Amino acid sequence: xxxxxxDKKRDVAEGQIFVELTRNREQSIIDCDRLxxxxxxxxxxxxxxxxxxxxxLSENMELFKTILDKRI
Length: 72
Known about the structure:
This protein is α+β, with helices and mostly antiparallel strands and 72 residues long. It has one domain (2-71). It is built from two helices and three strands, in the order E-E-E-H-H. It has helices spanning 41-52, 57-71, and strands spanning 2-6, 17-23, 33-39.
């Protein structure tokens, strides 16, 4: 599971976006494998572009349509 949260109260230089990748979270939130870090939007953009590069155009279009639908 990928979790992305923004905290505008943090200093920009320290990163305001927290990205966390977890495995086995559905079994136990305490015992799951977790990797998390703070970053900025430039690093998040790079991450998203790398993820999008392994998906087809139609899969990307469907994904971004879902994102846009949630924002409206």
